[in-house]
Write a structure and sequence with these properties.
The chain is an alpha+beta fold. It has a domain of 270 residues: Periplasmic binding protein-like II (D-Maltodextrin-Binding Protein, domain 2), CATH 3.40.190.10. It is 42% helix and 14% strand. It contains 20 helices and 20 strands. Strands 9-13-8-14 form a four-stranded mixed β-sheet, with helices on both faces. A three-stranded antiparallel β-sheet has the order 4-16-7. It has a three-stranded antiparallel β-sheet with strand order 10-11-12. It is globular, with a radius of gyration of 23 Å. It starts with a strand and ends with a helix.
């Protein structure tokens, strides 16, 4: 394992737009460990004092997504539970849900029925849940018990992203360079080199790679994990607009940082061009026919080393390599941006991996326990190592030079979740080139235009629900290339109009204008 102390200046990616423009690409300054260690020790001391005073432990349920490995099941019920209980006097249980239940489905059912738990969220789902009263207000508890999160996960600016009406409803988690999530394609670099190619720059390169790889590996598919996302081809769209999707329906020009104008994305020329590309790829066999009907099969094929591409992000190179190497020990991944990145630079949403929200009916000591739990998991190198790698001597060993030698190969906490550049460790098979690319990933990026903005869904929540139903039935088949754009778009846009897109867009524009006015005061 290689370990690097890296810049904390990536925190600038969640500051104001002007500060972001100056600091977004600066990842070179070294952040010492003294402040982090001091904050962690103070927090642990406070937690220990609380434990002595409070007596009986509080309970907490941590909901994760995916599937628990055999070792993770054992770990969560024994070593993890015991260590958390000893540290903060919280009796924690881990529960898994399928990814299909994230930001909706069973997750929303659990929230609406009053179950007590903490799980990850995103800005769009946060807005929806706050408007429905599903999330607990964490403001006061975070002031008391989230000191390590503030120190290690982006500071006050990162917390501001998760506020609605000045109140905090989620805790930022992780700290990493993540500009351009889903605007790049994560690619099997080992197979690219196997067929005599070195890089991907154009659509033609992607198609050529698929053709050559298919000849050598007839059972391989092109696009695997993450699905088909229009942003992946943003760089090769014949348009000057650097499309930034504020949500599924609303977009803006990411290059025009001072312009709050928003658009109906599905009615845009940029969406049309992306769909034409995906339709061509579908007809060439690059998009599986079961892309919408059996996503779990696509995911399984990817994990088995049977897919060439995935929706990309800086950190997914490591995540995917860790997972796929269990099936194919030679797997190597690299991210590619298709097009000219100087004209359409990657956009950064900040440095967080995700954020954790607590269900609304958790309060008092119990709520404080939940905040302590999330804070604990980002409090130190020791805790990051523990949840990622397990018990030293049982699950892994560290060599004298700090290399990670794994004994257990089962996944514990997913590697993307606690990913924090302050505590980053690299597996021994990760190359210097991969590390350098990752640590300098945000160079040249620009800030997302919505940093600090949270859309209040209440005025248009009925329209939004109707629009989501239309998106699922009418637009997703177009996006995935299953039907011809020209044959299906008129009916789809008509249904979107009937669902209330104009009212939704008007409300979004009103709130976004207000956000810009307040930001520029």
């Amino acid at each position: 394992m290689k370990r690097r102390k890296v810049a904390a200046l990536m925190m600038a990616a969640v500051m104001t737009a002007s500060a972001l423009l100056a600091g977004c690409g600066d990842t070179s300054a070294d952040k010492g460990d003294s402040n982090t260690q001091g904050s962690s020790e103070e927090q642990e001391s406070a937690d220990a004092a609380d434990t002595e005073e409070q007596g009986e432990p509080t309970e907490a349920t941590l909901v994760l997504y995916g599937e628990s490995s055999a070792r993770m099941s054992e770990f969560s019920e024994n070593e993890f539970k015991e260590k958390v209980l000893e540290a903060i006097n919280v009796d924690v249980t881990i529960q898994y849900l399928p990814w299909s239940e994230y930001a909706g489905g069973k997750t929303e059912l659990m929230l609406s029925s009053g179950e007590k738990f903490v799980t990850y969220t995103d800005t769009a789902f946060l807005s929806k849940c706050v408007s429905k009263g599903y999330y607990a207000d964490l403001t006061e508890a975070a002031e008391l018990y989230a000191g390590d999160l503030k120190n290690n996960c982006g500071g006050e600016e990162a917390f501001d992203i998760w506020k609605v009406g000045g109140r905090l409803y989620a805790l930022p988690f992780g700290n990493k360079p993540n500009a351009g999530e889903n605007y790049v394609i994560t690619t099997r670099q080992d197979l690219l080199e196997e067929v005599g190619m070195t890089e991907l720059k154009t659509l033609e390169d992607v198609e050529k790679f698929y053709t050559l790889a298919k000849e050598k590996h007839p059972d391989i598919i092109a696009f695997g994990r993450g699905g088909i996302i229009p942003q992946m081809v943003n760089g090769v769209i014949e348009s000057d607009m650097n499309v930034f999707r504020l949500n599924g329906f609303v977009s803006t020009d990411g290059n025009k940082l001072d312009d709050p104008t928003v658009y109906n994305y599905y009615a845009s020329e940029e969406y049309k061009q992306a769909c034409k590309i995906f339709r061509d790829w579908y007809q060439k066999g690059m998009i599986p026919s079961y892309v919408m009907s059996n996503g779990s099969q696509i995911d399984a094929e990817f994990m088995a080393g049977k897919a060439l591409f995935a929706a990309g992000a800086s950190y997914r190179v490591f995540e995917y390599e860790d997972a796929v190497r269990k099936a194919d020990p030679n797997a190597k991944f690299k991210n590619y941006f298709l097009g000219d990145q100087t004209k359409k630079p990657l956009m950064s949403r900040g440095t967080y991996s995700t954020a954790f929200a607590v269900s609304a009916n958790v309060e008092g000591r119990e709520l404080e326990g939940y905040v302590k739990l999330i804070n604990l998991l980002q409090s130190s190198q020791e805790w990051c190592d523990f949840i990622l790698y397990g018990v030293e001597g049982k699950d892994y060993n560290l060599s004298e030079d700090g290399q990670l030698e794994m004994i257990n190969t089962d996944t514990l906490f997913e590697t993307w979740l606690p990913d924090n550049i302050n505590f980053k460790r690299y597996q021994s098979y990760i190359t210097e080139e991969q590390i350098e690319i990752y640590e300098n990933w945000n160079d040249g990026c620009i800030p997302q235009k919505d940093l600090g903005f949270s859309f209040d869904m209440v005025p248009v929540q009925t329209e939004y629900a109707q629009m989501q139903a239309v998106e699922q039935e009418y637009f997703n088949p177009i996006t995935n290339g299953l039907v011809e754009y020209d044959d299906a778009i008129d009916e789809a846009l008509k249904k979107l109009d009937e669902a209330g897109i104009d009212k939704f867009l008007e409300e979004y524009q009103r709130q976004f204008n207000e956000f810009y006015e307040n930001k520029n005061k």
